[in-house]
Amino acid sequence: MGGASSSWRPRATRQLARGRHVVLTPGLYALPVPLRVATRGQVLLGLGFATLTPMRGLPAVELLAAGVRMAGVLVQAGPLRSRALVVVGDGSPSSSGTADAPILLHDCFVRVYAERTAPQPAVATTMLWVRADHVVVDHAWLWRADHDSTAHFTDGENPVQHALEVDGRFVTVYGLFAEHTLGDLTRWRGEDGAVFLYQSELQYDAPPPVWPHLGYNVTARHHRALGVGVYCYFFDEVTVHEGIHAADASGIVHSFTHLLDGGGAIQSVINGRGGAVSATGQGSYVCSS
Asked: Superkingdom, according to UniProt (predicted)?
């Protein structure tokens, strides 16, 4: 489906509703309604990049059946606040994956970004919200813009609270990159989840003196994570109590914090353990919890 055609949206939604696979060619797609991928085994594939922007405060994409796949898509926040830009599942069993047919997301890029001179803002609450069970994410970059083409943002522009929220069970992510949100970058509530490689940067323009949020916040009792990093580069003197918090930290291995530059400090790595980072280039590590 080509981005230049004014008729692409009815054709794409019609083909998706018929259960067919859809390939989006490079282009900018302004969406009045979500692209719903709701037939078992269905594929939504973007090329080069297909950039999807929801224009009415709805998700850009909803993945709602076992075995569906989305790959190679860039989702951009629109001018009206979306609860989430990409939604996986609706909380019902029929919209979840299964052990033998998980929902799959490959190379998923979501951003909240608008140039200072843009006529409309970019705004959302959460970039990626996983409500379904049995989901696999293979590489996701979830970015609140810290700069445009001219300079850094310094006053909470491009507002979005969270990069990732997970409520489903048996959700696994390989390569998760989350940056600069105004609240907790990742909130993981679903049981039996796992993450392999997590890189995050806290909000550069966090208001002083204390930023009361987390880079990685796990309230589930059973969770595994290997290689969890929380970086900071504060413009002001901002203190964060800890980079990571987990209800049960025993499943989180090789966690660390790192101060890239700027002021302030992260006082501990995980659940109050691990040393503070308060100088440029300083890192702190907790190998096992």
From this structure: Eukaryota
